[in-house]
Structure formats: structure tokens, C-alpha cells
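ZP: hey, is the magnesium ion complex queued? I don't see it on the tracker
AM: it wasn't, my bad. submitting now with these inputs:
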Amino acid sequence: MAHIQQLDATLSNKIAAGEVVERPASIVKELVENAIDAESTHILVEIEEGGLQSIRIVDNGIGIAAEEIGLAFARHATSKIQSDRDLFTIRTLGFRGEALPSIASVARVELQSSTGGAGAGIVLEGGKEVKRGPAEARRGTTICVTDLFYNTPARLKYLKTVSTEAGHISDVINRMALAYPGISFQYVSDGKTILQTSGNGDLRQVIAQVYGRNTAHEMIKIDGTSLDYEITGYIARPMLTRASRQYMSLFINGRYIRNFKLAQAIQQGFHTLLPIGRYPIAVIQLKMDPILIDVNVHPAKLEVRLSKEEALSEVITTSIKQALRAEALIPEPTKQS
Ligand code: ADP
Ligand code: MG
């Protein structure tokens, strides 16, 4: 048996990358989240060959100070939390300080950023800095990821076709656009614009862009508040259903999450109006005190722990029922319902 040794940073980042960077779409997710956390109002995502060739993200956010550009790629280096206490009141999408070092350990990364004044640029290969220099003084950040998984052959082999990977990236961007109607997103794949949103804050408009005009037309607004929760969004009239659960999008404090119980709560709201094997289309945005939600469960933060899941389910079901009733799609309750 060999002696116990502490792994060097490059190797430990590569191990972390196994969790954070599953495929090109996971990189896009992490980088768009960074752009959102940086208060960007315009985010451009450009990919080539399903992201396998290149991923380029341009934002107009607050930028990274020139002297911190190297630190951004250090493991567990983050500007988003500082103390134990912050970990329980997360208001940003990121907080682990793992995405940039993980991505850089399995690809070539070029980043340029400016906080408004003189900018700085950095190039990393295999997690190691190979170049640094000045950059344009345009507020915001541009990050370019190429040569993905060149040094992790098993992961490279596991990737699917260009169109599958591009589809996963599309899913990520669609969800981000639905979660943030106030941000203008542009998604360009192999030179073709796939999605472009205005950023004017109108969710129905984003729904039209993502799911089509006809679907958007069939959507009804939901709106509800309880002591702990605020719920807004749209659901499709029950004559419009899908054969898959993935058209139910749920966002908690701006984060897309997957949660079986809450998805069931949405379906319950439709009561008996859903044919067997059919699922609703819904875009639901929940706002709550971050203390009620633990996002530090899953490296990609897709799953979260909710402290009052039952109560929240109830709010979701009730709000949907109310909206359907207001449209006379389900009858008024008699005594109990
Ligand atoms: P996290 O998002 O968890 O903090 P990351 O590794 O994704 O960790 O990013 C590290 C840090 O780099 C962030 O905390 C942030 O300060 C900075 N950063 C990354 N991307 C951007 C961006 N697009 N605009 C401004 N700052 C950024
Ligand atoms: Mg991040």
C-alpha cells in the first residue's frame, strides 16, 4: 500500500469536474449562472458542434477585477458567500466556487473581463495558467471554452452526437430564459440563432419563444401568496397536455429545480382534467426566504431540500385550482374540495 498523500490542485479539480461538468450543457449552465449572478441584462451563448468544438458566453455583468482574474479559477474561491451563515441564506445561483476551476481542468479556457475600466484576460490549459494580459475596457465578461474533455478520454467517449448535446444546451437556455424574463438571452448554435428573448420581463412572451405562439396563447396566469411563499407563472389550459413531465418547469428563487413531490402538486392542481399518461405544461416561479431551502445537496444544484414541502405543495395545488376555476375550467368547490 502506498502512503496517503494530498492530491495536487489540478488533480483534485479534475475529480470535482466529474461531478460538475458532465457534458457541454453543464458548462453552459454554470457559465450562464455566473453571468446571471453578475447581474447581466444581456447574455449571448454561442456554441459550435453541440459545444464540443466551442462554447462562448458573453455577458454585460459586473465583471471581475483585473487582479482577481486568476483567483476566479482557484478551487473554492467565490465572491458569493463568506461565512457559515451565508450558506443557509443563498441568494445567488453559485456559491461553491467550483465551476471555473473544474471547467478549466478539463478544457482550454480563455476569459476576458472588465469591471468598467481596463480589463484583463487569462488563458488556462488543463487547469494551468498559460497566458495573461490586458483586455478591452467593456464592462462584462467573455469566456470561451474549447478542447473540452481532451484530457479525460472516458468522458469524451461518453458524449452523444452533436445534435443531442446541442439539444441539452437548448434545454438549459430555455429554462434560464423562462426563469429570467428580465434578461435578454441570445443562443446561437453553429451560426444560427435558436432563441432570442427581449428581456422586457414578459414571461408569456418568453413562453411564446420557447414553446411557440399557440402554446403561449393557451396559457393562463397563476398568482398566489401564502405566509411563506409567493407563486407566479403560467399553466396551459388542460386541453393542451404533453406526454412528458419535462414541460413542467419549476423555479425556486430563480433556480430551476427537479422535485417529484412538487411536480405531483402541479398535476394535482389539474385534478381529473389530465388524461392518463398526459402531463401539463407549466412554468412556475416560486419565491421564498432562502432559509427554507437547502441548495447545498447536489453539485449541480438540481435537487434541493425544502423544509416545508407539504405546505408548499398545498400552495401550488391551490393556486393552480384557483386559476382553473377563474377560467371556469373546473367547477367551484361545493363544501370541501
Ligand atoms: P461560484 O459561482 O460558485 O462563486 P465559479 O467558479 O463559478 O464559482 O466562479 C468563481 C468566481 O468568479 C465567482 O464567485 C465570481 O466572483 C467570478 N465570476 C465568474 N464568472 C463571472 C462572470 N461572468 N461575471 C462576473 N464574475 C464572475
Ligand atoms: Mg458559478
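AM: back. The two ends are 66 Å apart (CA to CA).
ZP: great, adding it to the tracker
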